[in-house]
From TrEMBL:
This is Insulinase family protein. Residues 189-366 form the Peptidase M16 C-terminal domain. PANTHER family: NARDILYSIN, PROTEIN YHJJ. Residues 35-176 form the Peptidase M16 N-terminal domain. Belongs to the peptidase M16 family. It comes from Spongiivirga citrea. One of its GO terms (biological process) is proteolysis. GO terms for molecular function: metal ion binding; metallopeptidase activity. Keywords: Hydrolase, Metalloprotease, Protease, Signal, Zinc. Residues 1-19 form the signal peptide. The keyword Lyase does not apply.
Length: 439
């Protein structure tokens, strides 16, 4: 019976891997716009999306936050879409839409019933070709962004941790600045500066268009040509970000938050960009340490010793560098120094002992699960295709990245932990209540 079950599970695993393979076609328009098509006619839904290679790290360091600002500004309206009507058009035609900005890229997308594919393509071409950028829109979105910062950062407990880690972990690279930027930079910006930012970054040769879902290929290619070929090519974007010096001595830092009562221990490590193999190993390490109640740090600090209210290991992947962050909240009489010792002990164990076969298999199962989930909808597939093209330079990673995770060994996990999670190569941040600040 066990043999039959094992054989069935092997067959099922093989079926899952093959069923998840994503077919796609890619090509370029004459103006440099890269196009990726993924056809899936199983449901009458289609996603149109555009990713621009512009994020919080781009632009003048005295004008931070422009990319995030444009995420909002480019919904204002266009030459042919009346101001304030973008979302109404989408919803009244049965669609949904959104946009996100990271430190590395900006992503816009719509999900429509497939009979509205043409509308989605037209709207994204309008955003690229005819956006209205004027004083009214800038002033409106300036207030929107300020309110977002108040709600998402200034008034949320522990929301300032990432910004505090960034400014201490990076000295020269623009990752030192928050993605949302500094409000005084946006207040000081002129309309001419916003227009120049648009002309530099929101051009077809700095973008990828993805269409995923229920469509007919020949007619879709014709619509893409009709709507996007007229967008003029921009100048090639030159990027030359400064390289950080290695951290060889722990950086001690403090930050304060008026929204908290319990201090937080935070460790930040500067690690390789997300396209590297080591970054994927660090993904596994973070899952091993704090993903779920059976993870090592949670079980040790929260469950068994009851020293912490919460503990988390996060591998925050970015293109040029990543940030590996450990976070813990002390419970009762336990101090941050107590937590630091316990966390360091667990990391030393990871650096000197191979993880068990059971833990290793559990990690493999988790990452297989994530892989399947990420490709479970055309919306997710569209995002993955754009990301793998724009930031990894390999679209087929949508099918093969899981093989990288499968090939990671327990020995490699031990080696990478030893290489990067060193006490002398980190920021040690005390994140404290405002009341703890010395007068």
């Amino acid at each position: 019976m066990k043999k039959h079950l094992l054989a069935a599970s092997v067959l099922l695993a093989g079926f899952t891997a093959s069923a998840q393979e994503v077919q796609f076609e890619e090509y370029d328009l004459d103006n440099g716009l890269h196009v990726i098509l993924h056809q899936d006619n199983t449901a009458p839904v289609v996603t149109t999306s555009v990713m621009y290679e512009v994020g919080g790290k781009d632009g003048d360091r005295e004008r931070t936050g422009f990319a995030h600002f444009f995420e909002h500004l480019l919904f204002e309206g266009t030459k042919n879409i009346e101001r304030g009507s973008w979302f109404k058009i989408v919803s009244s035609n049965g669609g949904t839409n959104n946009a996100t900005t990271s430190l590395d890229r900006t992503y816009y997308y719509e999900v429509f019933p497939s009979n509205n594919l043409q509308l989605g393509l037209w709207m994204e071409s309008e955003r690229m070709l005819h956006p209205v950028i004027d004083t009214v829109g800038v002033n409106t979105q300036n207030e929107v962004v300020k309110e977002e910062r108040r709600q998402s950062y200034d008034n949320r407990p522990y929301a300032g941790i990432l910004e505090a880690i960034q400014k201490n972990l990076f000295v020269k690279h623009p990752y030192k600045d928050p993605n949302v930027g500094y409000m005084d930079h946006l207040d000081a910006a002129t309309l001419e500066e916003f227009l120049a930012f648009k002309e530099k970054y929101y051009v077809p040769n700095n973008a990828v268009l993805v269409v995923a879902g229920d469509f007919e290929t020949a007619s879709t290619k014709k619509m893409i040509k009709d709507y996007f070929e007229a967008v003029p090519r921009g100048k090639d974007v030159e990027r030359n970000y400064p390289v950080e010096t290695d951290i060889t001595e722990a950086i001690k830092a403090k930050a304060y938050d008026s929204n908290i009562q319990i201090p937080a221990l935070v460790n930040g490590y500067r690690t390789p960009g997300f396209a590297s193999r080591d970054a994927r190993v660090l993904d596994m390490i973070s899952s091993y340490l704090s993903d779920g109640k059976s993870s090592k740090l949670y079980k040790r600090l929260v469950d068994e010793k009851k020293m912490a209210l919460a503990v988390q290991a996060i591998n925050l992947g970015l293109q040029d560098y990543s940030m590996y962050i450990l976070f813990a909240l002390p419970q009762g009489e336990n101090t941050m120094a107590d937590l630091q010792k316990e966390i360091d002990d667990e990391i030393v164990k990871l650096q000197t002992e191979l993880i068990s076969d059971r833990d290793y298999q559990k990690l493999q199962n988790k990452f297989e699960n994530r892989f399947v989930s990420s490709n479970s909808s055309v919306e997710g597939i569209a995002s993955s295709l754009a990301t793998y093209y724009m930031l990894y330079d390999d679209v087929n990673l949508i099918n093969t990245e899981i093989d990288i995770y499968r090939s990671i060994t327990p020995q490699e996990i031990m080696s990478v932990a030893k290489k990067y999670l060193k006490p002398n190569a980190r920021v040690e941040l005390e994140y404290l209540p405002e009341s703890a600040k010395e007068n």
